[in-house]
Amino acid sequence: MMANMQPDFQSLFEGSPSLFLILTPDPSFTITAVTDAYAAATLTVREEILGKGLFEVFPDNPNDPHADGVNNLRTSLMTVLKTKVPHRMAVQKYDIPIPDSDTFEERYWSPLNTPVLDSAGNITSIIHQVTDVTHESLREIERQDFRSLFLQSPEIVVILRGPEFRYEFVNQTHINILGFDATGKNVKDVNIGATQVYEILQRVYSTGETARLTGIPVVVSGKERFFDLTYSAGKRKDGVITGIMVMGIEVTDTVKAREGLEKAIRVRDEFMSIASHELKTPLTSMKIQTQLFHRKYNDDKLQPMMRIMERGVERLIRLVDDMLDISRIELGKLNFHREPIELSQFLQETLEHFRDNLNLAGIELHYDLKEKITCSLDPFRIEQVITNLVTNAIRYAPSAPLAVSLHAENDFAVITFQDGGPGVPKIDRERVFVRFERLHTRSEISGMGLGLFICKEIIQGHGGTIKIRDSEVKGTCFIIRLPKA
After folding, report:
1. Quick one: which of 249, 248, 241, 238 has its CA closest to 161?
2. pLDDT: is 458 or 448 the higher one?
3. Residue predicted with more confidence, 35 or 447
4. For the whole model, what pTM was predicted?
């Protein structure tokens, strides 16, 4: 019995794990047999496609204007009919229709068409075998897309391989900068005059940490150029570092412009320092002469003119002093000569010096300085800060009260100046401490916008802060915090 049993070849064929179609050699290439695996891979049902033409079941995707699967497959099958030998096709994009819809699913296939010959050498069937390579093809397409993106990027893109840092990939921007294609060369063999770059590569390769460098000088064709560069380690799935990706952009113009600006600023600061020193001596002499003239000629008609002259000279001296301080700040030479100062007495004595000027401006001075707090301060510089704040009150808040208070808060002495002026909007409270920044035009109120900047530098130099906070009444409230001794 067993010997007489014949294998069920149809069942064996249909159950094959390979993707097969059997086609007749007629113009329609009619489907006569299909494996289960093929039907599953192409989202078809055997009974629905048997007896139908191949291209009736699998037409081109009408939504893809570049679809050429039908034409390529027909050409391959016709070649098989003509040559009677197998024909392997290149990987084909051949989308398949999704059942019960008008849409197609993107697919890539590797096809092989093989003729079946009878004893007379005539083709009786064609075996159409395919392998679904969609996943691999899409990954390759994605890889090629990234490669194309990197190639055309206006930024530098370089991939270095191995501990010798061999150029595996360079894009056109890198080629244009160097003037040649460095692919296949080692970094050390490409003379770019940047030893720092090689040291960074070694560190990134050994640690895997990303490095970002700005304004790196590189000598290219004998000229120094500057780049911002990022170095990232390339790793396998097991974490082993195999190379480094370098991305960067040229910033030569930016660096040159910054250097030019810094040079211009240095020249300006030097000029301000020299000019201020040169002006200081004659202005001091003018002040002395004006005071002597004021004492000698006590004439009621001359007194108003003398006061105007004195105020003008004093304003010029303050401006020159501010310019000198700006120069010292820029050069890092704003020195402080500290000594223990009892703030309550110091503030009271300093404020009383302005009593007459405040009265003339219609400003009523109030202070609460009962708490005794000692700080290590430069008395000249702290007096300069107080003078500036009082002067601002006279300038911006005439005929309004000025309140000054002192209290301790943890390890700090806190000084509060509250004037009755127009106040400072929240959006401008940081800006007023920036050099040359003003909230009013020069036609409204004179000044160069240096005073509060210098105040901030002085207070910060003492380890403190100066800020503007919200006021419960009309005006501006300055808060100065100084560390206690």
Report:
1. 241
2. 458
3. 35
4. 0.43
